[in-house]
Amino acid sequence: THFSAQRNGKPFRASMTLLDWVRAAALSCRNILFISDAGKGKTQLVFDIYNAHFAGKGNMLRGRKETSVLDLFEQTSADLSSGKYDSEASRFLHPERTAALVNIADELNRAPPPVQQDFFDLADGVYFFRGKPVSLGREDYALFLATMNMNKSGDNGFSGVFEVDRALLSRAHLTIDLDHQDFSPTDKDKIEVWSGNALGRVQQAEKKDLSAEILAAYKTIRARAKEKSLQAYMFHFLIDTGLSYCEKDTLRHEKQGTWPMACLDCPHTAKLCSSIKSSSERTVESIALLAQGISYLAEVKFGGDLQIPLFDAFAEAFRFTTFHGNLNGTIVAEKYAGRSQVYMDETVGRVKAVCREMEEFI
Q1: Is 222 exposed, middle or buried (0-12, 13-18, 19+ CB in 10 A)?
Q2: What is the Rg, in whole angstroms, of the alpha carbon atoms belonging to the chain?
Q3: Most exposed of 14, 116, 175, 223 (fewest Cβ within 10 Å)?
């Protein structure tokens, strides 16, 4: 991502890599879902975050039919010598595991749907025990990372995988498609990998505990996100109210219950309204934190009095919500061969173009 920024009062081109976005997500406590074909490094990425940021202190599960979040957090202790057993009193939570800052679900969609429902707790940062919610992590920080092989085109050879509920997908604040050109390794990256000690399996990075620094950064980023700027309000209204507008619906001008079916024979099909619909409030708030996270990281990376246009940061963060169910799936399938991220990139570009046309009136 390239931002036309200001540094020490002068024009500056700030280039942020995919790993910068991943780091920004970790600093702003934004859940990440890595998707791709097999062998693209998804599991390696989550292991690197797990070890190099949190010193391997976290919870890691693999999507299997027998996977159980309950077994991860709950323990049972029984005193058989007394001859009595109280199933309620004998159950308690494992304090070290519930306090972990990072929870990982590798191969998410190899778990059947009933097991996937348990992952909602990890994504929401809360576990329900005896009818009461228990916060995961510490200081309101609980990061969820997941990987999956996503069948994007309908026939790509994956077996033993299950569909993932849209509500769970939308809890991934960033969905990173490692098959997409912008998010895949460069030629320089590949040479570096090939010249290393790659063994064709996941490598264990040196363990470093950066949790104190991450928590401090998260506190700063969250405080910034609470201070709503005009640019933040503009973007929120744009992807909420603005993208819920339907020109064909002359009665109420809204998309509820009509989109995208109503776009099929609509004379306005070429317009932005047929491409994408409004985002949920959860997505809107998520974008705000991620935009502040990448802005914070840019300041750390480049130093000086760096100022990234916040609206541009919001727009770029919006790209990572591709799989939240807001894109017109019919167009993705028919015109883009299932390449949702490519369609999202073009759609975000059109959103930014519309905003530039209105800029002089703001």
Answers
A1: middle
A2: 22
A3: 223
d(CA 292, CA 313): 8
Residue with tokens 């949190």: 54
User: What order do you get walking across the sheet with 102-106 strand by strand?
Assistant: 59-62, 102-106, 143-148, 32-35, 174-177
Token reading at 332: 């993705």
Give the separation between CA 143 and CA 126, rounded to whole angstroms: 11
The pTM (predicted TM-score) of the whole model is 0.89
Structure tokens at 314: 């919001």
How many other C-beta atoms lie within 10 A of the C-beta of residue 277?
20
Q: Which residues of 34-44 are buried (b: 16+ CB within 10 A; e: fewer)?
A: bbbeeebbbbb
Contacts 24+ apart (CB under 8 A), 111-115: 111/63, 111/64, 111/65, 111/67, 111/162, 112/65, 112/162, 113/162, 113/163, 113/165, 115/63, 115/64, 115/65, 115/67, 115/68
What integer pLDDT is reported at residue 83 of this predicted model? 63
CA 313 to CA 308: how far, in whole Å? 7
- Return averaged pLDDT per consecutive 10 residues of the chain, 362 residues in all: 89 92 96 88 90 94 90 79 64 92 94 90 92 94 92 58 87 92 82 70 84 97 89 86 85 79 82 88 90 94 87 93 91 90 94 84 76
Cβ atoms within 10 Å, residue 290: 28
Contact 140, 27 (CB under 8 A): no
